[in-house]
Design goal:
The structure holds two protein chains of two kinds. Chain A has 32 helices and 25 strands. Chain A is an alpha/beta fold. Chain A has four domains: 10-253, 3-Layer(aba) Sandwich (Rossmann fold), CATH 3.40.50.300; 276-513, Rossmann fold, CATH 3.40.50.300; 540-577 and 712-906, no CATH class; 588-691, abc type-2 transporter like domain (abc type-2 transporter like fold). In chain A, the strands form five sheets. In chain A, strands 6-7-8-3-9-10 form a six-stranded mixed β-sheet, sandwiched between helices. Chain A has a six-stranded mixed β-sheet with strand order 16-17-18-13-19-20, with helices on both faces. In chain A, helix 3 packs antiparallel against helix 19 (537-557) and helix 20 (560-580) packs antiparallel against helix 25 (714-745). In chain A, 51% of the residues are buried. Chain B folds into two domains: 2-43 and 172-376, no CATH class; 53-151, abc type-2 transporter like fold. Chain B has a four-stranded mixed β-sheet, covered by helices on one side. Chain B is elongated and about 90 Å long. The chains are: A alpha/beta, B alpha/beta. At the A-B interface, helix 10, helix 12, helix 20, helix 22 and strand 24 of A face helix 1, strand 4, helix 7, strand 5 and helix 8 of B. Strand 25 (701-707) of chain A pairs parallel with strand 4 (117-123) of chain B.
Chain lengths: 912, 378
């Protein structure tokens, strides 16, 4: 697979690509060509279709209309895509979004290597080269979730490069990481390109300055390609010297409006005590120190910036200042008062804007403003004016009745700022307010900030990872790994570090304060692993399944919540249900209304209260008492013994006993009646025998023979069913979660872009859950036998085999459910709804299948639970031998096949 | 204090807007309190219905045919003739719950007063049916035999007779009980999911943090959620009881609706508080669902609506008394069926209120800790 030496070859070609999400067109008739061996940056703000474009090229999304040809393969055809997949590498947006956080660095790389057919030896060599090249070698045992943002991106790159691709697609690989890591990242990419000139590189970026380093540019806005070509061509067309200027110019050619050049506001000298003072602020989460001994002072009316990468502690510091998080140690004052979460007065003087959009989507722009005006308890008279004023000032009048989700990101950020300023706060705390916003909107936003601060005297504390924005702060601090490295005006900082730009100053500061990361060494051996003969198809398939299932098993094993759900929940529910669902009537509260007071009536009373079914309450003394006992629920049964009962009984005059029942719970009433009559009759029979009285004989004897459960105890009858029910509910749910989780987190993209098949993915998912499910099933059986005292009367082998088949079926059902739900919550709901009704009501748990209506019987037999119920109850209660179960075995073997086949057909490998 | 009330009211109005705008949730609520109640109540689970009976008749006499004909719907399916040799196999395959064996010369012996024996084979693993069904069959037998002998001028008499009267539900119709219990179940399910998910969602979207930096305290947030969601469910309960239970199903409600609604208010407070508490215990929606589902299932099964609370082991009874639905089931049965006045049911109200307060206190204690925890991993 040598790269084409021909420089004129085209690696990627797009024609007429249009892609819609609902009615919104993310891409509108895009046509592009990327020459082999070229390096291209795609620039544009968030939401212009960059990610969609890259995902389409990588094969992660399904093409809606148009054609894409990648490395000679038509991406519409599944077979051609599978052939091209091993030559494409895709790194999706988001810090390490395609990584598995609980897996170690080495495990992550191995997983990716296993998806592509390479020999173990080649895999090992390449892994070591990559780890060395990225400087990750010392951390190869650390879980990916505990790496810094920069390291995570390097790992993600390793995973992308592990199969030696010819096309490398990177979606915003450096967004949010610190400038030093960013520089190292690009050095690494340059190194790889230097020794592998045939590699085609396509990168999307939101940093305009970063785009300067690429040979070719594609400028995008609102789903359209504004310009493409070499950097020189694009700059020339736009008549600009820098990429950022070019972007703005090109955008205006296409109908955007250029904001009037705004005069900067001059900051008056600040007076009075500082607005914010932090002294040695520290915040720990467990062993992890998020903020380490941070101190600074912010004067009134200044714009103070926090510059640092994602996860360096900026947000945590801000949260401590707002009182959202208590500090582990250190102190801070806000407007001269110590921070106190309960201090409502100070909160009224502060406005806060958090990183994510945190207003209510269900309220309109106006509604959000009104809610906040009320919550800040602005005087009623003042409210309307203030809202009108705010709408005008933040230019929101035209969208006052729109819902926030329909607005562009820039407008939403402006709305958030408007809300934060509504109550005229003295201090504004803004956490990365401009990430993802296009350069002009950002400019306008900063103009507003400058007005607020320098004209109106509001103190602004803002965090950002854009160096560009840091330049506009009055003073700023460099922050890294929880520490403040330096504080000063931009000029002071540059001077201190002897640097021309703020970026250089930050990098030199970082280098001084952090441990040197092993320099990236790109050794020539990394270039090509000698061509490995691909293994046979079956073996490849087997490799995929192993890769998927080993990864899944590791992940679940390290997740305490899911593990306890798998093992603890079944046991706890088994105990509560087996013990709690009891139709045995025991100690039913009853009262006697004895109007006879004879020896016989008293002996009957004793007999009733002595039985384990009944427990005696205060006797009733009058008819009114009977009503009262029942009405208060004190007694569920009142037995009224008529006057002359004893006499009539002995004389054979058939006295009449009255049973007054509480009918509120009919099944209890029925059972109570049956027991009361039974106990009375047996008492009378023995009494009459004793008295040798002439007793009328019953014409017939009814001899009931209770099979399987002679003591008639609920626990024996219910437990087999509870095991049936819990196994289905819990393991269908867990398996369904396993698949939808990947979809929600986004790591399913690894499947879409790899050559692995959906079948292998599903089987790989399904194996670990079958294992866990079977362990939990055995645990339940062991507990039923030793904890609840259920004897296994029938064939243990049948139970074990049936259980295995049933767990397999439950997992397969979960897989099937996961193919048609979108979110984890929906997966849980769907599994609960779909399994509970047939398993509880139609599978012979609460009532025998043979008693159901014909329709219900069909539903019951069409669901695997009823078949396992036959085995479970057959082995536990009925003592049946192995041969008795061939029908259920056959059914349980058939269900998973059907489920998996349906699932395979329904799961789309690509996103829409 | 005034500000607390005003903020709780304002925030609650926002909460109302968000529930009412969630169309899927509204459809679910409407279904849960109309169709679902009707379906469950009319298809009553535990009633003796269509029980399968095998009939092994060695006698084939007039009386045996008469008995066979007497086992009929709705309690029993038409009996199926069975070869006595096949009984064991049929029982193993769970084809029948009951098999009645009539011995040879049964009629002859009966008329001669020789007290013949009928055997009834019962599948005792079918707990809900075996006990009740045996009683039913025994009643039917004595009734038929008595009538049969009566017609031939032979007097029979048991040593005692019973008159049975069921208070509050004279015909022991399962549907009444099930309808009311299903309302309780759905209140639990919806309240916990509605309010718990609202807490988790606000946290996932970061809106809770946003609220907490304003002059809004955690208790305002909690109570706003409780009153707004509670109001929605309360209206649904009221309509369901009047339109579905009394209207469509014609269930007579003997008790005071006003008292019942008072209980519903207290119960909603406590169960919503439970939902908020569960919401503060879990960091994400999937984990919330994993915690909420077992809780809801346990509440539905063990609160006394499905099987009587007296028949549970003592330790379970203690555990379940810490769950508000147990008290609400007791309260509902008392008020709706037995027409119990406030003087009789107030302890249940106090229980629910105290439990609700306890959950709120735990939830408030967890509130800030939960924000800290949610950010620890990032």
């Amino acid at each position: 697979m040598a790269s084409e030496p021909d420089s004129g070859a085209i690696a990627v070609r797009l024609a007429g690509i249009t892609h819609r999400y609902g009615v919104i067109a993310a891409l509108d008739d895009a046509a592009l060509a990327f020459p082999a061996g070229s390096d291209t940056a795609i620039i544009g703000p968030d939401g212009v279709g960059k990610s969609t474009l890259l995902a389409l090229i990588a094969g992660a999304r399904k093409i809606q209309s148009g054609a894409i040809e990648v490395l000679g393969a038509d991406m519409k055809s599944a077979t051609q895509r599978t052939r091209a997949a091993p030559r494409i590498a895709f790194m999706p947006q988001g810090l390490g979004r395609n990584l598995y956080p609980s897996l170690s660095v080495a495990e992550n790389i191995n997983f990716f290597a296993n998806l592509y057919a390479t020999s173990p030896e080649a895999r090992r060599q390449r892994r070591e080269h990559l780890l060395k090249a990225t400087g990750l070698a010392p951390f190869s045992d650390r879980p990916a979730g505990q790496l810094s943002g920069g390291m995570r991106q390097k790992l993600s790159l390793c995973c992308a490069l592990v199969h030696d691709p010819d096309l490398l697609i990177l979606d915003e690989p450096t967004t949010g990481i610190d400038p030093l890591s960013r520089r190292q990242f690009w050095q690494l990419v340059d190194g790889i390109r230097a020794i592998q000139p045939g590699l085609t590189l396509i990168v999307a970026t939101a940093y305009m300055e970063e785009a300067e380093r690429f040979g070719r540019l594609v400028v995008m806005d609102k789903g359209k390609v504004l310009a493409e070509g070499t950097k020189a061509q694009v700059l020339e067309r736009a008549g600009a010297g820098k990429v950022e200027e070019a972007f703005i110019a090109l955008r205006h050619d296409h109908g955007g409006t250029r904001p009037a050049d705004a005069k900067p506001f001059i900051r008056p000298p600040s007076e009075g005590p500082p607005a914010i003072v932090a002294r040695g602020l520290t915040r720990r989460f467990g062993d992890f120190t998020a903020v380490d001994n941070v101190s600074f002072e912010i004067a009134r009316g200044e714009i103070f910036g926090f510059l640092g990468s994602n996860g360096c502690g900026k947000s945590t510091t801000m949260k401590m200042l707002t009182g959202l998080l208590p500090a582990s140690s250190g102190s801070a004052t806000l407007l001269g008062r110590p921070i106190d979460a309960a201090d409502i007065e100070t909160r009224r003087r502060v406005g806060y804007l958090s990183q994510s959009f945190s207003l209510y989507g269900e309220l309109t722009v106006l509604g959000n403003l009104q809610l906040h005006a009320k919550l800040f308890r602005l005087a009623r008279a003042e409210r309307a004016d203030r809202i009108r004023e705010t709408l005008a000032r933040f230019d929101l009048e035209s969208v006052a009745d729109s819902f926030p989700e329909t607005l562009p990101l820039g407008v939403r950020q402006r709305l958030q700022l408007a809300v934060a300023c509504l109550h005229k706060p003295e201090v504004l705390i803004l956490d990365e307010p401009t990430s993802g916003v296009d350069p002009e909107t950002r400019d306008a936003f900063w103009h507003l900030l400058s007005e607020l601060s320098h004209r109106d005297g509001v103190t602004i504390f803002i965090s950002t990872h854009f160096l560009h924005e840091a330049e506009r702060c009055d003073r700023l601090s460099f922050m890294h790994a929880g520490k403040v490295l330096a504080v000063g005006t931009p000029d002071e900082l540059r001077r201190q570090e002897n640097a021309d730009t703020l970026e250089a100053a930050f990098i030199s500061c970082l280098e001084k304060h952090t441990e040197p990361v092993p320099e990236a060494v790109v050794s020539p051996t990394l270039v090509r692993s000698e061509d490995v003969r691909p293994p046979g198809r079956l073996l490849t398939w087997f490799n995929w399944v192993t890769a998927f299932s080993r990864r899944e098993a590791r992940e679940v094993w390290r997740d305490p919540v899911r593990l306890s759900f798998a093992f603890l929940a079944p046991l706890i529910l088994l105990i509560t249900f087996a013990r709690g669902i009891s139709f045995d009537i025991e100690s039913l509260p009853f009262s006697i209304f004895d109007r006879d007071q004879s020896a016989q009536s008293q002996s009957l009373t004793l007999h009733l209260s002595g039985s384990r079914y009944f427990s005696e309450r205060r006797p009733a003394l009058s008819d009114l008492d009977v009503d009262r006992r029942l009405q208060s629920g004190e007694a569920a049964l009142v037995v009224e013994i008529p006057p002359g009962f004893g006499r009539d009984l002995l004389a054979g005059r058939q006295p009449t006993l009255s049973l007054w029942l509480d009918g509120a719970n009919p099944s209890r009433a029925n059972t109570a009646r049956g027991y009361a009559e039974g106990v009375t009759q047996s008492f009378i029979a023995s009494l009459l025998k004793e008295e040798q009285a002439e007793s009328p004989r019953l014409p017939v004897n009814l001899e009931p023979r209770f099979l399987y459960n002679q003591d008639f105890r609920s626990v024996f009858a219910m437990t087999p069913g509870v095991i049936m029910f819990l196994t289905m509910l819990i393991f269908a749910m867990m398996t369904a979660l396993g698949v939808t989780r990947e979809r929600e987190i986004g790591s399913i993209v690894n499947l879409s872009v790899s050559p692995a098949t959906t079948g292998a993915f599903l089987v790989g998912k399904f194996l670990p859950y079958t294992g866990i499910g079977y362990l939990a099933f055995l645990l339940m059986v062991v507990f039923a036998v030793f904890g609840l005292g259920l004897p296994i009367k029938g064939s243990l082998v049948a139970l074990l085999l049936g259980g295995l088949l049933y767990v397999v079926t439950a997992a397969a059902f979960g897989i099937l459910v996961s193919t048609f739900v979108r979110s984890q919550v929906a997966a849980i709901f769907a599994c609960a709804l779909l399994t509970m009704l047939p398993a509880l009501n139609f599978s012979g748990f609460l009532q025998p299948v043979s008693n159901l209506s014909p329709v219900a019987q069909v539903i019951g037999l069409g669901f695997p639970s009823s078949w396992f119920q036959q085995i479970s109850i057959g082995v536990f209660a009925k003592g049946l031998p192995f041969e008795a179960f061939w029908k259920p075995f056959a059914a349980l073997a058939l269900f998973p096949l059907i489920f998996l086949m349906l699932a395979s057909a329904m799961l789309d490998k690509q996103e829409k | 204090m005034w500000r607390w009330i005003a903020n709780t009211a304002d925030l609650g109005i926002k909460e109302l807007a968000s529930v009412l705008r969630d169309r899927a949730m509204m459809i679910f609520i409407i279904w849960a309190f109309s169709g679902a109640i009707y379906l469950v109540a009319s298809g009553a689970n535990l009633e003796m219905r269509d029980a399968s009976v095998g009939f092994a008749d060695h006698d084939k006499s007039q009386i045996s045919l008469r008995i066979r004909d007497a086992l009929r719907k709705p309690s029993f399916s038409p009996p199926v003739s069975l070869d006595p040799a096949a009984i064991d196999k049929a029982m193993d395959d769970a084809r029948f719950t009951f098999v009645l064996v009539v011995p040879p010369r049964f009629e002859q012996d009966l008329l001669a007063g020789r007290q013949p024996t009928l055997q009834l084979v019962v599948d005792a693993t079918a707990m809900t049916q075996a006990g009740i069904g045996t009683g039913y069959i025994s009643h039917i037998l004595s009734r038929e035999i008595e009538a049969f002998l009566d017609a031939r001028g032979m007097k029979t008499a048991a040593p005692v007779a019973f008159t049975v009267r069921s208070f509050f539900n004279p015909n022991l119709e399962e549907s009444r009980h099930m309808a009311v219990m299903e309302i309780v179940n759905n209140v639990c399910l919806l309240s916990i999911i509605l309010v718990g998910a609202a807490v988790v969602r606000e946290r996932e979207h970061g809106t809770i943090e946003h609220l907490l930096v304003m002059p809004v305290t955690p208790s305002v947030i909690v109570f706003a959620k409780i009153w707004a969601n509670g109001l929605v469910v309360l209206i649904a309960v009221f309509l369901s009881l009047n339109l579905v239970a009394r209207g469509a199903m014609g269930i007579p409600i003997s008790g005071s609706i006003a008292l019942y609604m008072l209980g519903a208010v207290v119960f909603l407070f406590s169960v919503m508080a439970l939902g908020v508490m569960l919401g503060t215990l879990t960091p994400s929606m999937p984990q919330f669902a994993l915690l909420a589902f077992p809780t809801i299932i346990v509440m539905e099964v063990l609160s006394g609506g499905m099987t009587p609370i007296e028949s549970m082991p003592p330790y379970l009874r203690v555990v379940m008394s810490a769950v508000p639905s147990t008290h609400y089931v007791k309260f509902s049965q008392g008020v709706l069926f037995r027409d119990a006045p406030l003087a009789l049911v107030w302890p249940e109200l106090v229980w629910m209120a105290v439990l609700g307060a306890l959950y709120v206190i735990i939830a408030l204690g967890r509130f800030r800790a939960m924000l800290a925890g949610a950010n620890g991993g990032r």
